[in-house]
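Q: What would this chain look like folded?
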Amino acid sequence: MRDLKIPSERHPEKAHRPDNAQPKKPSWIRVKAPGGEGYNTTRRIMREHNLTTVCEEAGCPNAGECWSQGHATMMIMGEICTRGCTFCNVATGKPDTLDVFEPGRVADAVQKLGLNHVVITSVDRDDLKDGGAEHFAQTIRAVRHRSPGTTIEILTPDFLKCDDDVLDIVVDARPDVFNHNLETVPGLYPTVRPGARYFHSLRLLQRVKERDPSIFTKSGIMVGLGEDKQGVTQVMDDMRAADVDFLTIGQYLQPTPKHHVVDRFVTPDEFEAYEKAAYGKGFLMVSATPLTRSSYHAGDDFERLRAAREEKLGRV
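A: My prediction, written as structure tokens:
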């Protein structure tokens, strides 16, 4: 992997640190170990329905908090991804055949957990002609049928190797929020997200809005990978040009020593500055903290997002 260094005069704490060494984890990034009755109940329901969660597969630091409240992000289409992004802990390889009963099991779990808002994501499935678009749509419809009052947020792959019209399959199933993460600044794509294309992902988000303006669009990036502030603000501008409603920014954490190194830990003050800048650029909703992840507090954030649009439209 190519060495990604920022000159030490910009980050003095790196001047005497070997390039492959982790900077010391600061106090603001630490979380409590998972456990408790709520956590165990959520875990049991996931196991009973034979469901995979990105919380576990990606080693999310917020899993303990979210699961204790009954919130788990469902990861459909298996545990094996066809991409090899260097930031991600999900296994790469040849996926299994799609499970046609999975949408129903997801719907059952959502009902049993009593979720008001659910987040559904997936691995990349470049092996499928439609990238899994129809499977997403079937899952959305199954949840709608079983829990009509539950709002649905999806976090999709980029459908890079598919025909353009497969996106319509997902959009026409009418999720409440369509999320697709850009993950990082375009200059780091060759080493961080080598199987993806930055401007394709931007266009994907823009096409969702063009197809159905009522759907909220959402995207996020990680910081601490080697980007600079100018790169982050440029991504903000690009997202707004694509009419993205909701931006998330969180600290990258290295899952294992084999993954992309943490360049540095971004301070809470810097996250606050990013949030202020993003609101100034016109996002309806921004979540920018060290522990922010795509689905962290997603239900509460959705209510705030909906209220922000109503206010913008002058209905409040």
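Residues 298-312 form the longest helix (15 residues).
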